Amino acid sequence: MNKKSNKQKILLVEDDVNLGFLLVEYFESNGFDVKLYIDGEAGLKGFQLGYFDICIVDIMLPKLDGFSLVKEMKILNSEIPIIILSARSLKEDKIQGFEFGVDDYITKPFDEEELLCRIKAVLNRRNPHPSNSERTLINQKKLGAYEFDAEKQELVLGKITQRLTYKESKILKQLAQSKNNLVKREEIMIEVWGESDYFTSRSLDVFISKLRSYLKLDPRLCIKTIPTVGYILEESKL
Question: Are residues 75 and 101 in the same domain?
Fold first, then answer.
């Protein structure tokens, strides 16, 4: 496996072959390259020989358990993010995983869509810091008649400057980066709050309502709700 492909690459170590194949199919349908290993020793060998953007590791693995595998991976390359995906839900297991340096710990059973959102959130956090010029392009965006600066948390229309909260700015940035395209609710919640549950869902509704009020001075802009799925920041032409 090399780095020539533009697709991000996942190393998946899961001894449940049926679950492993289901995850491979799901991740590949969402644009990833995936390599599946069914025991810890094979997973370690694959990690040594290939390049991966992120690793997903079960704990209860044959030949080499998940914690030992994570420890060896961190010695070889501490920069590659790792998510533990395990049926073991004890607090002690989670603490041990985070002490070894994992980026997230997800318990089975799990929702595939939430897992995908968590993977994207970890990858976003792990992206290298852009240069000043790249940061300007990333954080400053024209939205209709507005100028939106995510880093300064400002939405400017002429002489009117609306200061945004940190969460408002992060949500608007996600919507702006996918302007005229759907952004899923779970993806926003995982990125902004780090979790997806009833309370964050209600909070997201409140933040979307606030953002709509900030953008109302330009009738070309509309945050459209796709019920139970997500939002689209639409910008129509004059």
Answer: yes
- The whole domain housing 118 covers 9-126
What's the pLDDT tens digit per position in 81-110?
999 999 988 899 899 899 989 999 999 888
Q: How many CB atoms are closer than 10 A to CB 51? A: 14
Whether 143 and 113 map to the same domain: the answer is no
Whether the bond into 109 is cis, omega within 30 of 0: yes
User: 3-state DSSP call for residue 113?
Assistant: helix
- Is the pLDDT assigned to residue 140 strictly greater than 80? no
List, in sequence order, every residue forming a beta bridge with 155; answer none if it has no partner. 148, 162
Q: Does the reported pTM lie above 0.70?
A: no
* Token pair in block for residue 110: 């799990």
CA 47 to chain centre: 22
40, 50, 55, 75, 222 from 80: Cα distances, Å: 17, 12, 7, 11, 38
Q: Which residues pair with 56 in a beta bridge?
A: 12, 83
Cα 100 to Cα 86: distance, rounded to the nearest angstrom:
15
| Type of residue numbered 206 | V
